[in-house]
Amino acid sequence: EAQLVESGGGFVQPGGSLRLSCAASGFTFSTYSMNWVRQAPGKGLEWVSYIGVDTITKKYADSVKGRFTISKDNGKNSLSLQMNSLRAEDTAVYYCAVSVLRGVIITNAFDIRGQGTMVTVSS
Amino acid sequence: QSALTQPASVSGSPGQSITISCSGSGTDIGANNYVSWFQQHPDKAPKLIIFDVSYRPSGVSNRFSGSKSGNTASLTISGLQAEDEADYYCTSYTGSNTLLYVFGTGTKVTVL
Fold first, then answer.
1. Which of B3, B51, B103 sits opposite A107 (nearest CB)?
2. What CA–CA distance (Å, rounded) separates B82 from B110?
3. Tens of each residue's pLDDT in chain B, 112 residues
4. Burial label, B66 (beta-carbon count in 10 A; 0-12, 13-18, 19+)
5. How far lies B109's CA from each of B9, B17, B64, B73, in Å?
6. Greatest CA separation found in chain A?
7. Shortest distance, CA A99 to any CA of chain B (angstroms)
8. Which residues is B99 bridged to in the sheet?
9. CA A87 to chain centre
10. Phi/psi class of residue A42: alpha, beta or left (left: φ > 0; alpha: ψ in -120 to 50)?
C-alpha cells in the first residue's frame, strides 16, 4: 500500500525559505506523477504544484509560481518542495499526493496518503 | 477560475441518505471525468473516498457513491452513520497550467 511521509515544516519569518520532503514507499515511485496540496488553518484545500512522471513537466498555482520549486528524485523515492520568499498566506499544512491507479491506468486523480507537515510563516 | 461550489452544510439522521452537490463549469467538472471526493475528520488528513467521478478506492465503504451530470458532481452517502460526520471536499482536474486541480468550498456533514 502506498505510504507518504512529509517532513521539513516549521516556523519561518516572512521572506524566508523552507524545503519540504515527502518520502514514498509501497509503490513504484518512478511511474507516478505527484502533487503538493495545502490547507491553511480552518480553511479548505488548495492545489499547489504538480510534477510529471518525466520529472520535467512541472506546474504551479499562480499563488506560488516563481517562489516554489517542485522536484522528484526517483532514485531516493522522494518528492521535494523548495519554498522561497515565504509569505504569511503560505501558512498551511502541506500534503504530498500520489496519482491514483485504476486497474492498470494511472488517472489524473490523486490521493493524499500522509499526515502532512505544518508550515508557519510569521514575524 | 474559482473554487467549485458546495453547500456549506448538510445534515441527516442515522440511516438516511444525503447528497452533497459540487457545482463547477465547462472547464473543470464538465470537461472531463476526473472528479474526486475527500472526507476529512477534525485534525486529520483528507481521505480519498471517490475518484474519477464514481470509483471507490479499496477499503472505502460502498455507502459512498459518486455521480456527475453536466457541470455538477454529486456525492451520496447512504445509510448515514455517526462516523460519517466530517468535512467533504470535491475536486476536479482542469488541465490548466496554473490551476491544475480546483477544489470545492467544502461541506460539513452533521449526523443528527
1. B51
2. 8
3. 689 999 999 999 999 999 999 999 999 999 999 999 999 999 999 999 999 999 999 999 999 999 999 999 999 999 999 999 999 999 999 988 888 999 999 999 999 9
4. buried
5. 6, 12, 13, 17
6. 48
7. 11
8. none
9. 17
10. left
Residues of chain A short of pLDDT 50, as ranges, are none
How many beta-carbon contacts under 8 Å exist across A and B?
68
Going by the DSSP 8-state scheme, the letter that residue A75 receives in this structure is T
A72-97 in b/e form (b: 16+ CB < 10 A) is: beeeebebbbebeebeeebbbbbbbb
Strand partners, B9: B108
**DSSP codes of every residue in chain B:** --PBB--SEEEE-TT--EEEEEE--TTTGGG-S-EEEEEE-TTS--EEEEBTTTBPPTT--TTEEEEEETTEEEEEE-S--GGG-EEEEEEEE---SS-SEEEB--EEEEE-
Helix (H, G, I), strand (E, B) or coil at A33: coil
